[in-house]
Amino acid sequence: MTNTLRTHGLGISFGAFRAVNDVNLTLEPGARQALIGPNGAGKTTLINLLTGVFMPTRGTIHMGDRELTSLSAHKRARMGLARTFQINTLFPSLTPLLSVVLAISEREGLGAVWWRPLTRNKALFDEAHTLLGRLKLDALADVPVAELAYGKQRLLEIALAMAARPRILLLDEPAAGVPEDESGELFEAIAELPQDISILFIEHDMKLVFRFSKRISVLVAGQILTEGTPAEIGVDPRVREVYLGHAGASHV
Ligand SMILES: Nc1ncnc2c1ncn2[C@@H]1O[C@H](COP(=O)(O)OP(=O)(O)OP(=O)(O)O)[C@@H](O)[C@H]1O
């Protein structure tokens, strides 16, 4: 199975409202792809469709040659699809180290007995330290989550998603709420994740989008308006028109 994630004619309606409509999206192996579009365009809904939070009204989703369309969120996660949310979902009183250890235990199906036996325990902690190091959180491994700067908390959320050993990582506004001077650092850590992981991220800050994506998909009113490299999207008059007057669009 390859890491290619592909949708065909994907759509969902809420009552008569087509929140996502006829979306053909491809996420190639190793992608660093941004999903942009105005507020309410359907970006989070599309990620919810990809991860199985919502079942589509129309269309299909494939990972390689496996069809995911009607699989549960849990099964998709088991197949290597991981995500983060727009809103912080961390346990404030846990440390980053224990949070990641628990996430790895979950992947391993160890549940509540994660702390036994000791040999296994060491492997879990070693892996957690490696993961925290990758996201430059190792120095903060034992600091309660509630005391971490918000940007560090968001990095921890990515570490937790990475603990599932994903093939595909879907990041819903990873820099939301993060002060501007920390968001570049956060995206640098994302950029340095292993290249074989395909990443799709929603981001409103066009400076970050143009700096860190290799492809951009533009969603407007539930439909893909266009898709291309940052250079192509940056000169596309339709995209400029959509963003005219929208905050943060000066880069488009
Ligand atoms: N469960 C739901 N029931 C009804 N309408 C919904 C539901 N989820 C989303 N919507 C609607 O679908 C549309 C798309 O919402 P969505 O959150 O996907 O947009 P978005 O592009 O992620 O916006 P933002 O950039 O503001 O986060 C919105 O009009 C929203 O109100």
From TrEMBL:
InterPro entries: AAA+_ATPase, ABC_AA/LPS_Transport, ABC_transporter-like_ATP-bd, BCA_ABC_TP_C, P-loop_NTPase. It comes from the Bacteria. Gene3D superfamilies: P-loop containing nucleotide triphosphate hydrolases (3.40.50.300). Pfam families: ABC_tran, BCA_ABC_TP_C. One of its GO terms (molecular function) is ATP binding. Keywords: ATP-binding, Cell membrane, Membrane, Nucleotide-binding, Transport. Residues 5-246 form the ABC transporter domain. This is ABC transporter ATP-binding protein.
